[in-house]
Amino acid sequence: MTKALTDEYLMRDDLQESFTRSHINPSTLSTFQRILLTTDGTVTDILEAYLFEQIKIDKLSEQLNKLSDNISVIGLKEGTEVIERKILLQGKISRKNYIYAESIIVPERLNESFRYALLQTKTPIGKIWLEQRVETFKEIIDSAKEPANDLAYHFNIKSSENLLSRTYLVFSNRQAVMMITEKFPESYFINNF
Asked: d(Cα 14, Cα 100) in Å, to the nearest integer?
């Protein structure tokens, strides 16, 4: 086998490092699982194309809080006001939950119309970016495999079953505006079409 065909050379270095840190072997994932864990595109659009079903959000919680600790990866200090949001991406017809996402959003770094759409509607973040033509850059900073625990309820799986996840930063106007972690069951999206 040539060097170019080995696993370590199939993805960008940062993505490969993230998988290595989390002990996830990308060659054991389905094509669509790898796409979900490595894309810098809008997951809602990708899910809709894959599932051929519109996706809506189910807001589990959304609170304006002051940080109790620094979050250096996004440049936030203790006491900074953030929106902490937890949602499910759910099939509009099937009502099946496909992805759980938790976000830390810095409202002072967003324009007023984006903040309004985020807080007052049930529109997924990616669709708000598109509707408002917000230019963004996404940087994946971590991936993980972990037991579902309390999140198992949302996916109708056992708490001991694994979730796969990725965490990424979203930049707009050259500053980090949010940090998002998206999780889905390892048993989802395993068929390659």
From this structure: 23
Domain spans in the chain, listed from the N-terminal domain onward: 3-185
Question: Exposure of 46 by Cβ count < 10 A (0-12 exposed, 13-18 middle, 19+ buried)?
Answer: middle
Q: Collapsing DSSP states into helix, strand and coil, what is residue 32?
A: helix
For residues 2 and 11, give the distance between their C-alpha atoms in angstroms, rounded to a whole number.
15
Tens-digit pLDDT profile for residues 71-107: 988 888 999 999 999 999 999 999 999 999 999 999 8
Q: 16: exposed, middle or buried (C-beta count within 10 Å: 0-12, 13-18, 19+)? A: middle
What is 3-185's CATH topology? Answer: Chorismate lyase (3.40.1410)
Q: What is the pLDDT of residues 91-147, one digit of tens each?
A: 999 999 999 999 999 988 888 888 888 778 777 777 787 888 878 788 888 999 999
Task: Write down the residue that tokens 């970016």 correspond to.
Answer: 129
Whole-structure pTM value: 0.82
